[in-house]
Design a protein that fits this description.
Elements lengths: L15 E5 L7 E3 L9 E4 L10 E5 L2 E2 L5 H10 L4 E6 L9 H6 L7 H13 L6 E2 L14 E2 L2 H10 L2 E7 L2 E7 L5
Parallel strand pairs: 7-8
Antiparallel strand pairs: 1-6, 2-3, 4-5, 4-6, 9-10
Length: 181
Amino acid sequence: MSKVAVKKLHWRSKVQETFVPSGELGIGIGGGADYGEFPFITAAAGGGITVGDIILEIGGTPILGLTLGDVRGLLNSCPHPIRIKTVSPGSTLCKDLRLYLSKCFTPGSMDSQLQQVIRENLYLRAVPCTTRQPRDSEITGVDYNFVSVEEFFSLEESGALLESGKFKGQPTFTTPYLNNL
């Protein structure tokens, strides 16, 4: 007997688009980069939006990597009806933003491109940390938060970093979420 290979559908093939009419918003939103999560639906009045779904776009604007306050602000400022794109969480795309950012995807793939969008949105609010010394033109708290190696590992261990990495063997690039967004 031969085993039949079952091809998993990519999460992108499961994206749903919903138009929410004026005055009927009735949805709650949780998560956001400040909580280390993708934004997701916490309450829904129906109409194709499901509690637990990850929100990808609001009114044509990609929102992954934005803070919860920014997502709510965008939702409240969009002209009606509001177009919302969502997807049900799965094994590749779950609510955990840190987990998604830690994955290695093929350069140029849909997931790799999505990681880039997330990082671009993160840097609208986040000031990254580095263990290197500041350059002459850099301002602490504006360009980077300059921390010691010990502080870096403490932040990493506490879960306060969305992602981290090394450059030339030194911990040098991080995206903090709770305290700096």
